[in-house]
Amino acid sequence: MPRHPLITQSLTTRSRCEIIDLTARVRQIVRDHQVRDGIAVVYVPHTTAGVTINENADPDVKHDMLRKLGELVPLRERYYQHGEGNSDSHVKTAMVGNSATLIIEGGELVLGTWQGIYFCEFDGPRTRQFMVKLIESAE
User: How much of the chain exceeds pLDDT 70, in percent?
Assistant: First the structure.
């Protein structure tokens, strides 16, 4: 079974809170490494950014997700104690998560018709990284 390196890619966010579609980039990584069957783990090594899978057909979904997260976890709360002023970003990241695992079948990511892979920025703008680990099936 071939071993694949950990792939690290950078991206730059432009807003404090922003969602960026990574689907095409992850698809290209799978193709470049010629993985036929297995899994791809997409990981974000930051405490104030995450990754999720959600609808990518309608751009309003990104807006709605960010708006609802902002209402659930406001920028300022009287009880926040973290000195950097980004406690909301840490909470949002804990809610969204830092990784997504995807199935690879026949050389392609298995995603639903409307699904895409989203990088979620909660403390930008910044230069960020995401990592992809490909694990090929032994069959």
Answer: 97
- Residue-range domain boundaries for the chain: 7-136
Give the other-Cβ count within 10 Å of 137's Cβ: 13
Q: Which helix (H) or strand (E) holds 90?
A: helix 87-96
Residue 8: in which H helix or E strand, if any? strand 7-12
Distance CA 104, CA 134 (A): 9
Query: pLDDT tens-digit profile of 32-55?
Result: 999 999 999 999 999 999 999 999
Please count the other Cβ atoms lying within 10 Å of the Cβ belonging to residue 95: 14
The domain 7-136: what is its CATH number? Answer: 2.60.120.460
What six digits make up the tokens of 47? 């405490």
